[in-house]
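call fold target=Cytochrome d ubiquinol oxidase subunit I
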Amino acid sequence: MDTLLLARLQFATTTSIHFLFVVVTLGLVTLLVGMQTAWVLTGNPKWERLTRYWGQLYVINYVLGIATGIVMEFQFGLNWSGLSRYVGNVFGAPLAIETLVAFFLESTFLGMWIFGWHRLRKGVHLALLWGVALTAYASAFWIMVANSWLQHPVGYEVRDGIAHLTDFGALLTNPTLGMAFGHVVSAALLVGGMLMAAVSAWHLIRRTPDFVLFRTSLRIGLVTAALAITLVQGFGFAQFGPVGEVQPTKFGQGPEAQELITEWTARFGPGDYTPPVLANVGLGFMILIGFTLGCVWLLLPLLFRDWIIRLRFPLWLVLLALPLPFVAVILGWIAREVGRQPWVAYGLLPTDQAVSPVGAPVMLASLIGFSLLLGTLAVTNWVLLARHAAGGAGDPPLGRPPAAANEPAHPEPALA
């Protein structure tokens, strides 16, 4: 088999799985901040129970997501030594900042938040969660800075066959950054909102005792998803302008694309400089799913009336729609990354020059091993999420008072 194809398959597999963890983490932490802030401001125990319940799911996803991220990082050195050698001085700068933010600040804040229940003042404890959320957004921002540079290299010069960073500000004003970052963040909010709405709908369908509690989280999730899908569509379509200017070959074959292909042929030799059809296929299905999820707005008036909720039919619609945002974010990633091919850094570094000089058997073994490991982490994550989500919000382990830590959980009555 072709080494380059195996390396690309491995990158696609590991990145796709890790990205699913990222969007859940980013979406849920935003909702957690809102719920715990409401608890601190109002003192209503309903918000505390919601924070503990959804916080427990968030922590599970975060911990296993960190593990997938560590596994994914290994492939840069193992499979893409050409990328590290040629553009590492530029591409590595935002990644280094993201590592400091994600693995140090964010993890530290989260650890203090997890173990700070009933040990810290409410305001301090809330501030820690705000810190987790802000550093999570910062982490996503720096990842998108790095990715946007690969989409449109700026602020660099090539000396002795190596790209060197000359203008850090150019990385932050990259035309492919702003709308793409907004698109990713709003997609994460869509995933978080739909996940919260679907889990709540499942409990309401089963008529669990905490009807009022899950009715509240259902409404929060649906409102978040409705607002987020509007932002997703706006940021998504807004990217076509900048992308068409800086990546003429991505979605069309106009005169600008033909001129660029002629230039590349002179510089790099003959080859196929048009992206695979898979990029446009992914884009088309993502847009279709986006318009379908726009129907969430139609459910909002219905689900604010208890008698409609008790009919169950709208709840089943919400529950069955849960996979759609997850599929959409993967398709969006395919459209963005595959549409850049055959380049790792657009117009600067061809993909076949970035791959490590290793044999196909070694690359195949790496692909199988990493895929099995990440697949196991993903399955473990969803099993744990499903198990704890099904447990209800009676007395979640997260935030349980120390005196009750060794006592059996007793579901409390629904709170108004």
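return ok
The two ends are 62 Å apart (CA to CA). The beta strands are 156-159, 162-165, 343-345, 349-350.
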